């Protein structure tokens, strides 16, 4: 097996950080294509939104087991195999357009992406320690937010010039380029891999999930990212059908959304030494107040510029909260880096997919006020979780 070489530290770290945004990239790049896909496949908006939910559910479930597998069998070969299959699945979607096939491939992509992301996060834990590790872990969610920032913006142009299939061709090529970088410059960096033992794995999961602050954190992460995903699922219909703008404008609006997440992540990273719970409470109170104001203003004014001003601030708060708790969860159990990474992302994404899909279909989001109702509901859920955390002092 090819082993990691320290001389390639910089480029292998760069390769890792190009794969960290993969989950955001694959969920957001084709969002501007939702209306066209709805027409092409003669289905409802929820039928197309399911392609996103299926990915998130399979991604979340796989995350729970991916950590134990990469901790037992290593990272390198798993990443190479997953990238190859991921590329092929995207080319299949583009070449054989069938809604049932897309559902199946999106489920497969959720599984593959989970292994890639967990393995690459664990790779950082393998090669870095101390303050440098904490710094990189704090940077993870900031880099991850580049996916939601760039993907819909790029997807809007791809959709406008070449149609919905171009998004999946792009993802396939992206995976092949990443595969090439991994093949030449990365290697297995795990030291002293543990044998696969079901009893030991179950015990590790009990230890991680049995920690109250960690389990509550999964719910907080799911609710905070749920705000972002609700906008992503409904933005094409609000912008292209309610406000009558093009898919390119949808991409620009998603860019604003992503910049909000990115800014919130940077703000959280700059306040890393401040009180953990106070930061979360301030971010949550701000998001609840903005959502309420967004709803009230919607009775009197409604235009795309006002909508996106509120969205930017809401997603800044979401990115702020997400970064704080994400960093905590990833570094809480360094002895079980793969498992804790898998549970953190898997649990939060599973919660996000259920909450976001359920909320947008329950409320029937179509304008600023209905989106504000969804935002406020998520903020209220987060508030109740933080109250439990504060009361239990865990």
UniProtKB/TrEMBL annotation:
<keyword id="KW-0813">Transport</keyword>
<feature type="transmembrane region" description="Helical">
    <location>
        <begin position="82"/>
        <end position="101"/>
    </location>
</feature>
<feature type="transmembrane region" description="Helical">
    <location>
        <begin position="107"/>
        <end position="124"/>
    </location>
</feature>
<keyword id="KW-1133">Transmembrane helix</keyword>
<feature type="transmembrane region" description="Helical">
    <location>
        <begin position="337"/>
        <end position="358"/>
    </location>
</feature>
<dbReference type="InterPro" id="IPR036259">
    <property type="entry name" value="MFS_trans_sf"/>
</dbReference>
<feature type="transmembrane region" description="Helical">
    <location>
        <begin position="136"/>
        <end position="162"/>
    </location>
</feature>
<keyword id="KW-0472">Membrane</keyword>
<dbReference type="Pfam" id="PF07690">
    <property type="entry name" value="MFS_1"/>
</dbReference>
<feature type="transmembrane region" description="Helical">
    <location>
        <begin position="370"/>
        <end position="389"/>
    </location>
</feature>
<keyword id="KW-0812">Transmembrane</keyword>
<feature type="transmembrane region" description="Helical">
    <location>
        <begin position="12"/>
        <end position="31"/>
    </location>
</feature>
<dbReference type="InterPro" id="IPR020846">
    <property type="entry name" value="MFS_dom"/>
</dbReference>
<feature type="transmembrane region" description="Helical">
    <location>
        <begin position="307"/>
        <end position="325"/>
    </location>
</feature>
<feature type="transmembrane region" description="Helical">
    <location>
        <begin position="168"/>
        <end position="187"/>
    </location>
</feature>
<feature type="domain" description="Major facilitator superfamily (MFS) profile">
    <location>
        <begin position="12"/>
        <end position="394"/>
    </location>
</feature>
<feature type="transmembrane region" description="Helical">
    <location>
        <begin position="280"/>
        <end position="301"/>
    </location>
</feature>
<dbReference type="InterPro" id="IPR011701">
    <property type="entry name" value="MFS"/>
</dbReference>
<feature type="transmembrane region" description="Helical">
    <location>
        <begin position="51"/>
        <end position="70"/>
    </location>
</feature>
<protein>
    <submittedName>
        <fullName>Bcr/CflA family efflux MFS transporter</fullName>
    </submittedName>
</protein>
<feature type="transmembrane region" description="Helical">
    <location>
        <begin position="245"/>
        <end position="268"/>
    </location>
</feature>
<feature type="transmembrane region" description="Helical">
    <location>
        <begin position="208"/>
        <end position="239"/>
    </location>
</feature>
């Amino acid at each position: 097996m090819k082993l990691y070489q320290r001389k390639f530290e910089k480029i292998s770290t760069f390769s890792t950080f190009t794969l960290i945004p993969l989950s955001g990239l694959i969920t957001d790049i084709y969002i501007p294509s939702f209306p066209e896909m709805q027409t092409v496949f003669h289905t409802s908006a929820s039928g197309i939104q399911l392609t996103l939910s299926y990915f998130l559910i399979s991604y979340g479930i796989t995350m729970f087991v991916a950590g134990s597998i990469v901790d037992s069998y290593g990272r390198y070969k798993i990443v190479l195999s997953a990238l190859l299959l991921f590329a092929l699945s995207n080319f299949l979607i583009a070449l054989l357009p069938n809604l049932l096939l897309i559902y199946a491939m999106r489920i497969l992509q959720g599984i593959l992406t989970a292994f890639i992301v967990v393995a690459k996060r664990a790779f950082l834990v393998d090669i870095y320690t101390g303050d440098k590790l904490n710094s990189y872990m704090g940077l993870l969610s900031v880099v991850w937010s580049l996916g939601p920032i760039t993907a819909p913006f790029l997807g809007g142009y791809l959709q406008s010039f070449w149609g919905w299939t171009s998004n999946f061709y792009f993802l396939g090529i992206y995976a092949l380029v990443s595969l090439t970088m991994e093949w030449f410059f990365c290697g297995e960096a795990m030291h002293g891999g543990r044998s696969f033992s079901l009893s030991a794995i179950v015990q590790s999961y009990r230890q991680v999930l049995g920690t109250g602050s960690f389990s509550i954190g999964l719910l907080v992460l799911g609710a905070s990212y749920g705000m972002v995903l609700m906008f992503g699922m409904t933005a094409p219909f609000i912008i292209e059908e309610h406000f009558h703008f093009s898919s390119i404008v949808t991409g620009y609006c998603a860019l604003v959304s992503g910049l909000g997440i990115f800014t919130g992540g940077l703000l959280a990273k700059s306040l890393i030494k401040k009180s953990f719970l106070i930061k979360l409470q301030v971010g949550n109170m701000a998001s609840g107040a903005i959502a309420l104001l967004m709803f009230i203003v919607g009775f009197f004014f409604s235009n795309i510029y006002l909508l996106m001003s509120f969205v930017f601030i809401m997603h800044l708060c979401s990115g702020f909260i997400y970064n704080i708790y994400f960093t905590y969860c990833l570094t809480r159990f360094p002895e079980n880096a793969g498992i804790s990474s898998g549970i953190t992302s898997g649990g939060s994404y599973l919660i996000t997919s259920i909450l976001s899909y359920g909320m947008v279909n329950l409320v029937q989001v179509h304008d600023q006020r209905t989106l504000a109702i969804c935002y406020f509901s998520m903020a209220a859920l987060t508030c109740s979780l933080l109250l439990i955390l504060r009361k239990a002092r865990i």
